Amino acid sequence: MAYDKFTTLTSTAVPLPIENVDTDQIIPARFLKATTRDGFGDNLFRDWRYNGDNTPKEDFILNNPIYTGKILVGGKNFGSGSSREHAAWAVYDYGFRCVVSSFFADIFKNNCLNIGVLPVQISPEFADEIFEAIYADPKTELEINLEAQTITLLSSGTQESFDINGYKKGNMLNGFDDIDYLQSMKSEIETFTESRPF
Fold it and tell me: 0.85 cut: is pTM over it?
Protein backbone atom coordinates (compact mmCIF):
# COMPACT_ATOMS: atom_id res chain seq x y z
CA MET A 1 0.00 0.00 0.00
CA ALA A 2 1.54 3.29 -1.12
CA TYR A 3 1.44 6.27 1.22
CA ASP A 4 1.73 10.00 0.77
CA LYS A 5 5.29 11.05 0.03
CA PHE A 6 6.91 12.76 2.99
CA THR A 7 9.39 15.48 2.08
CA THR A 8 8.86 18.63 4.15
CA LEU A 9 5.94 19.06 6.53
CA THR A 10 5.09 22.47 7.97
CA SER A 11 2.19 22.35 10.40
CA THR A 12 0.78 23.36 13.71
CA ALA A 13 0.96 20.65 16.36
CA VAL A 14 -1.12 18.99 19.06
CA PRO A 15 0.66 18.80 22.44
CA LEU A 16 0.34 15.65 24.56
CA PRO A 17 3.04 15.99 27.26
CA ILE A 18 2.20 12.69 28.96
CA GLU A 19 5.04 10.25 29.59
CA ASN A 20 4.85 6.50 28.99
CA VAL A 21 1.86 6.60 26.65
CA ASP A 22 1.43 2.94 25.77
CA THR A 23 -0.19 1.33 22.75
CA ASP A 24 -3.28 0.28 24.74
CA GLN A 25 -3.93 3.93 25.50
CA ILE A 26 -3.32 4.86 21.86
CA ILE A 27 -5.80 2.22 20.63
CA PRO A 28 -7.57 0.05 23.23
CA ALA A 29 -7.46 -3.70 22.66
CA ARG A 30 -11.21 -4.01 22.08
CA PHE A 31 -10.80 -2.18 18.76
CA LEU A 32 -8.24 -4.56 17.27
CA LYS A 33 -10.66 -6.92 15.55
CA ALA A 34 -10.62 -5.15 12.18
CA THR A 35 -8.32 -6.52 9.50
CA THR A 36 -8.04 -3.38 7.35
CA ARG A 37 -6.28 -0.19 8.34
CA ASP A 38 -9.30 2.09 7.95
CA GLY A 39 -11.34 3.58 10.76
CA PHE A 40 -8.82 3.31 13.57
CA GLY A 41 -8.49 7.09 13.82
CA ASP A 42 -12.02 7.28 15.23
CA ASN A 43 -10.79 5.37 18.26
CA LEU A 44 -7.38 7.00 18.73
CA PHE A 45 -7.02 7.57 22.50
CA ARG A 46 -10.62 6.39 22.76
CA ASP A 47 -10.78 6.09 26.55
CA TRP A 48 -9.11 9.46 27.02
CA ARG A 49 -11.30 11.18 24.40
CA TYR A 50 -14.74 9.89 25.35
CA ASN A 51 -16.89 9.22 28.38
CA GLY A 52 -18.77 5.95 28.83
CA ASP A 53 -21.79 7.42 27.04
CA ASN A 54 -19.58 8.36 24.01
CA THR A 55 -19.68 12.08 24.75
CA PRO A 56 -16.33 13.87 24.29
CA LYS A 57 -14.28 14.63 27.39
CA GLU A 58 -13.84 18.38 27.27
CA ASP A 59 -10.50 18.34 29.07
CA PHE A 60 -8.73 16.03 26.60
CA ILE A 61 -6.45 17.78 24.13
CA LEU A 62 -7.85 16.19 20.94
CA ASN A 63 -11.26 17.59 21.87
CA ASN A 64 -9.92 21.13 22.16
CA PRO A 65 -10.47 22.84 18.78
CA ILE A 66 -7.68 25.37 19.28
CA TYR A 67 -5.06 22.62 18.90
CA THR A 68 -4.89 21.16 15.40
CA GLY A 69 -2.33 19.99 12.88
CA LYS A 70 -0.60 17.01 11.33
CA ILE A 71 2.03 16.75 14.07
CA LEU A 72 1.53 15.15 17.47
CA VAL A 73 4.07 16.13 20.14
CA GLY A 74 4.13 13.44 22.81
CA GLY A 75 5.88 12.94 26.11
CA LYS A 76 8.88 10.72 26.79
CA ASN A 77 8.63 6.99 26.02
CA PHE A 78 5.79 7.32 23.54
CA GLY A 79 4.35 4.06 22.17
CA SER A 80 5.51 1.73 24.92
CA GLY A 81 3.73 -1.49 25.82
CA SER A 82 2.54 -4.17 23.41
CA SER A 83 3.74 -4.32 19.82
CA ARG A 84 0.32 -3.82 18.17
CA GLU A 85 0.77 -2.11 14.81
CA HIS A 86 -2.82 -0.88 15.09
CA ALA A 87 -1.50 1.95 17.29
CA ALA A 88 0.46 3.37 14.36
CA TRP A 89 -2.54 2.80 12.09
CA ALA A 90 -4.71 4.85 14.46
CA VAL A 91 -2.22 7.72 14.50
CA TYR A 92 -2.08 7.74 10.68
CA ASP A 93 -5.81 7.33 10.17
CA TYR A 94 -6.55 10.24 12.52
CA GLY A 95 -4.48 12.48 10.27
CA PHE A 96 -1.11 12.78 11.97
CA ARG A 97 1.90 12.42 9.68
CA CYS A 98 4.57 13.00 12.31
CA VAL A 99 4.97 12.19 16.00
CA VAL A 100 7.61 14.07 17.97
CA SER A 101 8.95 12.80 21.30
CA SER A 102 12.12 12.76 23.37
CA PHE A 103 12.01 8.94 23.29
CA PHE A 104 10.07 6.27 21.39
CA ALA A 105 9.51 2.59 22.06
CA ASP A 106 11.39 0.82 19.24
CA ILE A 107 8.53 -1.34 17.94
CA PHE A 108 6.10 1.56 17.79
CA LYS A 109 8.74 3.65 16.02
CA ASN A 110 9.27 0.96 13.38
CA ASN A 111 5.53 0.42 12.93
CA CYS A 112 5.14 4.14 12.24
CA LEU A 113 7.93 4.10 9.65
CA ASN A 114 6.24 1.16 7.92
CA ILE A 115 3.01 3.07 7.29
CA GLY A 116 4.09 6.62 6.52
CA VAL A 117 4.19 8.28 9.95
CA LEU A 118 7.53 9.92 10.72
CA PRO A 119 8.73 9.51 14.34
CA VAL A 120 11.08 12.36 15.20
CA GLN A 121 13.14 11.95 18.36
CA ILE A 122 14.46 15.14 19.91
CA SER A 123 16.18 16.20 23.13
CA PRO A 124 14.05 16.63 26.28
CA GLU A 125 15.08 20.30 26.36
CA PHE A 126 13.82 20.93 22.83
CA ALA A 127 10.60 19.05 23.62
CA ASP A 128 10.01 21.36 26.59
CA GLU A 129 10.60 24.41 24.38
CA ILE A 130 8.11 23.12 21.80
CA PHE A 131 5.44 22.47 24.44
CA GLU A 132 5.89 25.94 25.89
CA ALA A 133 5.67 27.54 22.45
CA ILE A 134 2.49 25.67 21.51
CA TYR A 135 0.76 26.50 24.78
CA ALA A 136 1.75 30.15 24.38
CA ASP A 137 0.44 30.20 20.80
CA PRO A 138 -1.50 27.23 19.37
CA LYS A 139 -0.76 28.56 15.87
CA THR A 140 2.95 27.84 16.41
CA GLU A 141 4.31 25.80 13.51
CA LEU A 142 6.99 23.14 13.25
CA GLU A 143 8.87 22.34 10.06
CA ILE A 144 9.97 18.75 9.55
CA ASN A 145 12.47 18.36 6.71
CA LEU A 146 13.00 14.68 6.04
CA GLU A 147 15.66 15.09 3.38
CA ALA A 148 17.79 17.24 5.72
CA GLN A 149 16.63 15.32 8.79
CA THR A 150 15.85 18.47 10.74
CA ILE A 151 13.00 19.73 12.88
CA THR A 152 12.61 23.48 13.36
CA LEU A 153 10.44 25.48 15.72
CA LEU A 154 9.65 28.31 13.35
CA SER A 155 8.73 30.88 16.01
CA SER A 156 12.23 30.80 17.49
CA GLY A 157 14.32 29.22 14.75
CA THR A 158 15.50 26.53 17.16
CA GLN A 159 16.46 23.44 15.19
CA GLU A 160 17.64 19.93 15.88
CA SER A 161 18.66 17.02 13.69
CA PHE A 162 17.08 13.59 14.01
CA ASP A 163 18.14 10.09 13.02
CA ILE A 164 16.32 7.76 10.66
CA ASN A 165 17.20 4.47 8.98
CA GLY A 166 18.35 5.16 5.41
CA TYR A 167 16.07 2.52 3.88
CA LYS A 168 13.01 3.82 5.71
CA LYS A 169 13.91 7.39 4.81
CA GLY A 170 14.03 6.49 1.12
CA ASN A 171 10.69 4.75 1.35
CA MET A 172 9.03 7.72 3.04
CA LEU A 173 10.45 10.18 0.52
CA ASN A 174 8.97 8.04 -2.25
CA GLY A 175 5.73 7.12 -0.49
CA PHE A 176 6.64 3.42 -0.49
CA ASP A 177 5.91 0.57 1.85
CA ASP A 178 8.13 -2.54 1.68
CA ILE A 179 6.12 -4.07 -1.19
CA ASP A 180 6.18 -0.83 -3.19
CA TYR A 181 9.95 -0.75 -2.78
CA LEU A 182 10.29 -4.25 -4.21
CA GLN A 183 7.96 -3.39 -7.09
CA SER A 184 10.09 -0.34 -7.87
CA MET A 185 12.99 -2.75 -8.45
CA LYS A 186 10.99 -5.12 -10.65
CA SER A 187 13.08 -4.64 -13.78
CA GLU A 188 16.33 -5.09 -11.84
CA ILE A 189 14.98 -8.26 -10.22
CA GLU A 190 13.89 -9.63 -13.59
CA THR A 191 17.27 -8.86 -15.12
CA PHE A 192 19.03 -10.60 -12.26
CA THR A 193 16.69 -13.61 -12.54
CA GLU A 194 17.32 -13.95 -16.25
CA SER A 195 21.08 -13.99 -15.66
CA ARG A 196 20.87 -17.00 -13.35
CA PRO A 197 21.73 -20.40 -14.92
CA PHE A 198 18.96 -22.21 -13.03
Answer: yes
